[in-house]
Amino acid sequence: MGMEVNRTTRVGKIKYTNAWPVFHYFHPEKLQNSIELVTEVPSILNRRMLDGSLEVSAMSSFAYAEGADHFMLLPDLSVSTDGPVQSILLFSHKPLEEAVNGTIALTNTSATSVNLLKILVEKHLKGNPEYFTSEPDLEEMMNRADAGLLIGDHAIKASWENRGYYVTDLGQLWKEWTGCSMTFAVWAVRRSAVASRPKAISEIVQAFRSSKERSRSNLTPIINNAVREIGGTEHYWHRYFSNLCYDFGRREQQGLELYFKYAHELGLLKHEIKLQIWSDNTLTRVKE
């Protein structure tokens, strides 16, 4: 027990606003166990979870799937939508039906949205585009491509400054096609940490849940932060945060399982994925 309390657990925090409600009241210094918070874009957090230099993190859903043998999902936590997401946007010079057979620039900041786009384009719209990966700079993308995919705060800002492009919300398109919700980010823990520091993981899970609930009961401080740091209006951010789902119930799990199924069918994932969710019961199973 003493050894566990003294061991620092490294926890990854997504830079993007969409995860703010889960982190806003998450204060590592108030926890009994030692926590180091690492704030980065999803692609870096994903890599650090895969290489073991983080024990717990918010992760791109797709990156979780790539390393699923090493991870368990934390319960009741995700960034999901049941329809428009407002921050996973494809900008195109032409209507979507034409753009999907042209050249598409993909953001280099997250794998979930890139592979969601490929699923939608190839399975739903029967498109056959050429893809290339780019820094998330819309004008640079659109100078070189027929369409460009942006996520997170880059997508939000670009939607405010839209210069006449067609805009497709991937959350909306997924909902129209499948009828399902879409989970863009999950919270995961490395299995080795579940075994070596169970009490720390339990405390972190409770702290995240508590932060989520406090944020949900009063979004005002988070909205004010977003206006101050990103721009936009209180009305925009209230609508944005209210629209996102931070739970991970059966509906969110079913939508994510379908996404993984399609990703596997397209060869984007090597293996079929079975969701494995951490619970306090995991502790007894690990010890046995």
UniProtKB/TrEMBL annotation:
<comment type="pathway">
    <text>Quinol/quinone metabolism; menaquinone biosynthesis.</text>
</comment>
<dbReference type="InterPro" id="IPR030868">
    <property type="entry name" value="MqnA"/>
</dbReference>
<protein>
    <recommendedName>
        <fullName>Chorismate dehydratase</fullName>
        <ecNumber>4.2.1.151</ecNumber>
    </recommendedName>
</protein>
<dbReference type="Pfam" id="PF02621">
    <property type="entry name" value="VitK2_biosynth"/>
</dbReference>
<keyword id="KW-0456">Lyase</keyword>
<dbReference type="InterPro" id="IPR003773">
    <property type="entry name" value="Menaquinone_biosynth"/>
</dbReference>
<comment type="similarity">
    <text>Belongs to the MqnA/MqnD family. MqnA subfamily.</text>
</comment>
<keyword id="KW-0474">Menaquinone biosynthesis</keyword>
<comment type="function">
    <text>Catalyzes the dehydration of chorismate into 3-[(1-carboxyvinyl)oxy]benzoate, a step in the biosynthesis of menaquinone (MK, vitamin K2).</text>
</comment>
